[in-house]
Amino acid sequence: MKKYYSYILICLSVFGLLSCENDDNLDPIGNWELSQPELISPEEGEELLLQEDRANEKFYFEWQEAVSTAGFQVRYELQIDTLGSEDHDSPIISVKSDNNGKATSASIQASDLDLALSYAGYPANESSELEWTVVAICQDTKTYATRTLSVTRFENEYVPNQLFIAGSATEVGNDISAAIPMRHLQNASGASTSIFEAYTSLEAGQTFSIYSRQELPAHIYGGEEGVIEKNGTPIAVEESGEYRITVNLNDNTYSLWKIEHWSIVGSVIPNAWDGDEPLEYMGNGVWETTIFLTVPNGESTGAFVFRANQDWGYLLKRIQGTSNELYMESQAGEAGINIEDIPLNNSGEFTVTLDLSGDTYTYNLESNLSAPSETPSSLFLLENGTSIAQFSLEGDTFTSAYLPLQAGVSYSLNSAEDGTGTSYFTSNIIGATDSPDGDSVAAGMSFVEGPGEFSVDHDQAYKLTFNFATGSGSWQYYNLKLFHWDPSNWDGRNEFAMTYVHPMQFTTTQNLEAGYNLKFNSPWDVQFGTPEGGDNSVMSGALVNGGGDLNPITQSGSYQANITVDSTYSNATFEIIAE
Questions:
Q1: What CA–CA distance (Å, rounded) separates 136 from 2?
Q2: Which of 36, 64, 69, 356: disulfide with 32, CB 3.0–4.6 Å?
Q3: Per-residue DSSP letters for 70-104?
Q4: Any residues with CB less than 8 A from the CB of 446 and at least 6 apart, and which?
């Protein structure tokens, strides 16, 4: 046992002696020196001409080795930097020498050198005075040898194929690694247009720059008054908000267009194509809203587009053949892209998302509805617990006639006339809209199975629909106008708005001219006039939708005009009373 113990002690002692001796030999401090490398080529002040048609050409650099007096191995790094620079930690470009840094030669490809000089701000097609340095590295010791060098860059400036935005004015701050990508627009052949755009939020009083990469080195662009330049002044905006930022590297310009709002426009919203339903900016190039979208009555699908700032020149439509990709209508022709209005197949409440981040613009419709469990065989509208109307059924959709409903009254839906069947409930207020005075006013709504009551926003004759396959419905009403015109001057007509009076009546008091034609219209679905063969000179009587012009006024003056419509808006009665 003692022999084994002694042997271990001897081995450990020898190992310790060897370790100490090795440590002494490797000690870099004060025991050895490192000479400078001696440069061979290129010669002092020699000129390198970089040519675009020879972008892969290599330029070679050679030197004699540096020597460690202790015989330690030396490695090398080639640097090219600004003339007179003494900062060897951040040169314009640096490469290891050949053989993984062991050889006394190195090469740089023309395209790599041109790009590095472009990053550093040296102009294209001009000769620039630089210097090249060989750094000899041995453990923690370095020596340097430097010569001057002239380099003429490629004839044309490097044009990036991607751009990013960062700065204190942006949503990502000064973090270049998180810089916001800009969309690179392409032409009909798929080639670069050198035009870029991004939608984002900017803060007034702060600045941003445009980068060619999400890391340094990179091309950094700034500018003023719409002119962009490399290494230019960071850009600022005068007013905080959301912007479309466009950069055109063909003519070195930029533009900032403030987005007051993106909105939904189309047949699926109240007031259809005359309406405008804004989305809310959520950040990071995304807008969103929750809204009820309705397929128009009598149509299999609806349609809509996204519009900026209520300007018809800025419409986003769906790219044909895609499920949700969007393209600006004004740019689609030049890009050779076919676009279309966005279709809507089912009415319902949706969360609508417009995503203008990244290189592809998209939208998303997420339904928020939970449809009832099944379609009942009948559906009744109850007023304060008493049935006032039965809906007609086609497929899974129940539709009412035009019903005179009143504000302040509680309504409910039930599958049984006496209210003992299955109940259904909508949380929407029927008739509530930002545009109550339109001609034909409509909106969508959702409903669920379960007890509950609902109300209407104001007295009107409402048509209601409920689709049990989707849990979606809609309401719609008409406002009527009294048309009044000189038979020889239709374009100079008056359109007097009439006031709804419960139930199913409309009235207005106006100055009417003798010999003028009259008609009761809600353009252009409703046009109440004289029945075929009727007398158009009478001051009261029956009217039909689509009838002829009235001409009852023989003496100019103030008159009250009243009309009572039926539940289908097919027939009506009227009277005109002199005041």
A1: 53
A2: 69
A3: T----EEEEEEEETT---TTS-SEEEEPHHHHTSS
A4: 292, 348, 349, 368, 369, 426, 427, 428, 471, 472, 473
